[in-house]
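Quick one: structure for this chain?
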Amino acid sequence: EVQVVESGGGLVQTGGSLRLSCEATGFTFDDYVIAWFRQAPGKEREGVSCISNMDLSTNYVDSVKGRFTISSDSAKNTVYLQMNNLKPEDTAVYYCAVPSSQYGPICAATGWDGFIYTQWGQGTQVTVSS
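Got it. Here's what it folds into:
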């Protein structure tokens, strides 16, 4: 059974940092892409970042480039999202997601957030105060 569990959210001031963790089990971790999405109140869900565990290629939405870093530790079945220089517009519930199939290293290309992600965590709240 696939399980996806996020942790690490919280309340920080503008300019602060947080590290989100996503532990994903129940499948061959190194063969899959894992992505972070976020959803703010009243807004559509947005793809934030993606890592292809087979080659460690990554991608980011433009608004977080240079501030967020995604990484993966296959020994722990965990993907991290280091978030620095946080802004109020980063406030959202952050979700970790695993796709339905082994799509290959899709994170290296645009459109990675349009693939079908079927396994989702419960989400972790990130609130950035101004």
